[in-house]
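Forgive a beginner's question, but would it be possible to get a protein, spelled out as residues, together with the matching structure tokens, please?
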Amino acid sequence: MGEMMDKKQICAQNIKISADKIAESDNMAEILGEIYNIEKELENMKYYFRSELNNDYLDGYHLTVRTWNTLQRANVVTFQDLRYVTKAQLEKFRNLGEKGLNEIYSICNKCGLEIGSDADRVPHFSEGDKVVIVTDNSDKIPIGQTAIVTKACQSYYSFYPIYYQCEVDSKAKYYLSAGQIKSLENDLSYEYKE
């Protein structure tokens, strides 16, 4: 998280430098060049905030108890999980009425998140896959802990998402969604754009 904060601060400083250059310049080519730099830095910042948001739990965003419980039963607990589920699938969740859907849509609109934007990229893990835990709201598993997938399970309340039984240190077993774990084999970390 510290490295992410440093990158965001660098982006903010670069935007301020470009804005100062624009304010001082009369040269249109230079101004347009600085505007381009600002747009590039804003894209970087948007990525950083979204990557942090993906691992955020939805329960901290003032959902009603009924809506949160429905999402938990369907194992949709993070913003990343919402990116994996389509609107059509979300509308089929048992006990999630119009009010609950509107709550979810409102939160996603405020955060600039599109439901189902990664529905075609839901990660699938097999037994024996090594994964790293990227988020956990129970405070029982340290983020960054490696685990092994021991079983893929289907949610009773919806056909999305599959959740995984993961074993940590050959002892504890936890049930985690696809949005809570990441493969160690294909690390798709974002690289800072220069």
